[in-house]
Design a protein that fits this description.
Layout (H helix, E strand, L loop, with lengths): L14 E6 L4 E8 L6 E5 L22 H7 L5 E5 L23 H15 L4 E6 L1 H12 L5 E7 L5 H8 L14 H5 L3 E6 L7 H7 L6 E4 L12 H5 L2
Parallel strand pairs: 3-4, 3-5, 5-6, 6-7, 7-8
Antiparallel strand pairs: 1-2, 2-4
Helix pairs in contact: 2-3
Length: 239
């Protein structure tokens, strides 16, 4: 395991694992105590995709601990914190495009799907995606209907890639798919979206413009993109 991330204690009932998919090797921490029940997957965001000067980083492993804190504190029997490609691990396929322009490419989405199926097999799943992990969860659910989805939960979720790149006037993610193409299919899923009112990365209007049913949006007043979410931890875990 490769990790330049912020230290966080891993509860004794979680174990580290690596899954080799048909594309990437993925890191995950899992607690599985009742394997015949549904599974909850916390899907990490884009991590340290860029450096302070705006250039693509050499290692996208997340430096923050927020999603891990939420997952590790979840008392549900079957909980998995699932990393994105090239986070925490060495992999010969890793190259910067997979955490920049191709972060939501078909091969990335397939890897996440294969890892989820390898763990959950035929059991239902809840997918909880933070930031870019929300895009991954949504694309996965749309493209792989054999995943028995119970619910989609997003936290500061990037649900519309083009709107996000347009808003920030940054380079389009030219090698990535975009959930905005599948709005009709996505709207059919059981879903809830947590939005930080202080979030300057995924500003609230991006979520509001994407989600048809505004009753599915829950606002957290003091939350920015990756800070101030503590008040919502237990609400998210209860989904």
């Amino acid at each position: 395991m490769l990790c330049g991330c912020q230290s966080i204690a891993v509860p004794p009932d979680f174990e580290y694992n690596e899954i080799q998919t048909s594309t990437f090797k993925l890191a995950l921490w899992q607690k599985i105590t009742q394997p015949n029940l549904p599974y909850k997957f916390y899907i990490e965001g884009d991590g340290a995709a860029f450096r302070a000067d705006g250039s693509v980083s050499y290692n996208p492993t997340p430096r923050g601990v927020m999603l891990r804190q939420i997952a590790y504190g979840d008392t549900y029997p079957n909980v998995i914190y699932l990393a994105r490609p090239c986070q925490y691990v060495h992999d010969t396929l890793c190259e910067p495009k997979y955490w920049s322009t191709a972060r939501f490419s078909d091969e990335v989405i397939r890897a996440e799907y294969e890892a989820i199926k390898a763990v959950s097999t035929t059991y239902p799943v809840t997918l909880i995606g933070f930031s870019g992990g929300a895009q991954v969860a949504g694309l996965l659910a749309v493209k792989y209907p054999d995943v028995k989805l119970q619910k989609l939960v997003t936290i500061a979720g990037n649900l519309d890639v083009k709107s996000w790149t347009d808003y920030h006037r940054i380079t389009p993610l030219s090698l990535s798919d975009d959930l905005a193409k599948y709005r009709i299919e996505y709207a059919k899923f059981n879903q809830v979206h947590y939005v930080g009112l202080q979030d300057e990365n995924i500003v609230p209007q991006i979520t509001e413009n994407f989600v048809a049913d505004k009753t599915k949006i829950k606002y957290i007043k003091k939350a920015s993109h990756n800070r101030g979410w503590e008040a919502a931890y237990n609400m998210i875990r209860a989904e």
